[in-house]
Amino acid sequence: MNSRERVLAAINHQEPDRVPVDIGGSIVTGIMAGALTRLRRHLGMDTGPVKVYDCFQMLGEVAQDLVEKFDLDILPVEPAAIYYEFLPSRDHKPWTLFDGTPVLMPGNFDPEISPEGDWLLHEDGDPRQPVVGRMPKDGFYFDAQKVTGWKLDYTPPDIDSLRHSPIWRRLTDEALRYLQDKARTLRRAAPDKALVMTNWGEGGLGPPSVGSVAEWLVILGSEPAYVKELMDLAAELALDNLKLYWEAIGDDIDVIHIDGHDYGTQNREMFSPRIFKEFYAPCYKVQCDWIHQRTPWKIAKHCCGSIPHLIGPMIEAGIDILNPVQTSAAGMDPQWLKDTFGDRMTFWGGGVDTQRVLPFGTPDEVYQHVAERVRIFAPGGGFIWAAVHNIQYNVPSENIAAALQAVSDCGHYPVG
């Protein structure tokens, strides 16, 4: 099989020739620039500066030579800028990270240096505007400055005002052309690879939220009529954008990440399954039904944390793929997940624990851990190997190489 056939077979719960592998196929299956630089050095590959394409998470671009070396199966179709619209991934320039690692940063990257030595990003890249991102001195990625505050007397915005808000808008022609050109170029250059589109900024899909995380959770529990109206509006706008996506991109992509909202903490869901079924599931279902009825795309949902009681409703809503499969969270035991949902949900992730094993284990411990994950998740298809979310900055190169070696050694069907 080629990569595209392999990925689609796995998503359709068929056993391909081997387990598909993803590093760098999306902004939630990537690798941070420092770790990528060291990995390339460890492998004896060209150690020129890695290109940073997402400044918020400081993700490095996985170049074609590494795709070929590990026979990676997925390539990303993503907008020029994902989290910070004023930092599109172009016109890259030399930069040095806190630990001395040379990288290439987007041309507009020009942080303010605080008295403490932190890197500060201002809204729209304008130093007169509020700070929207901070990388602490000797840190590894930016913290979003707007997610921490909340007010007990927070009043959500009027629904009608949101229809005309810059955040709630139809895709622009410019954004569509960029995605169209990228998908078309990749499809023609690498017709054997599976292409995944992630666009969580302009033209975003999935259910909405307003305010901070804490404010939104209060609204979920106290304003059901408002939440229902908001979900209906989000579904309406999402259908408009889905039509634009399909007209522009068509079957030049294989998988669409419908959204990246997290609903789990380390120990449990952020809200009750009843709330998910009442408000979230209908919003997802409208969009999933449209996609399944009109396109060949498969639908991926990114959701971190402990969400064992939400996976069934996600499947009923039409979601095909769950990422990142945070097996270190409560209730997310790999064998239970596979036994309970493995014939209906594809697990895109869960391939290695990135909280404990990958950063802190020995190479042999990582190898054995990954081999066990493959043994559990791979039978019957429905599994694409990826780490639990992005590979972090200080993960030892030997451990990353051991993880990929284990997938290569143990991932051929019949598994086990």
Secondary structure layout plus pairing:
Elements: H1 3-11, H2 33-42, E1 50-54, E2 59-60, H3 64-69, E3 74-77, E4 93-96, E5 102-105, E6 112-113, E7 119-122, E8 131-135, E9 143-144, H4 159-162, H5 173-189, E10 194-198, H6 213-222, H7 224-249, E11 255-259, H8 273-294, E12 298-302, H9 311-317, E13 321-323, H10 334-341, E14 346-348, H11 357-360, H12 363-377, E15 383-384, H13 397-410
Parallel strand pairs: 1-5, 3-10, 10-11, 11-12, 12-13, 13-14, 14-15
Antiparallel strand pairs: 1-2, 4-5, 6-7, 7-8, 8-9
Helix pairs in contact: 2-13, 5-7, 7-8, 8-9, 12-13
Outline the structure in words:
It is a single chain. By secondary structure, the protein is α/β, with parallel strands linked by helices. It has one domain: TIM Barrel (Alpha-Beta Barrel), CATH 3.20.20. The chain has 13 helices and 15 strands. The strands form three sheets. It has a seven-stranded parallel sheet. It has a four-stranded mixed sheet with strand order 2-1-5-4, with helices on one face. Strands 6-7-8-9 form a four-stranded antiparallel sheet, with no helix packed on it. The longest helix is centred in the middle third of the chain and has 26 residues. The mean pLDDT is 94.
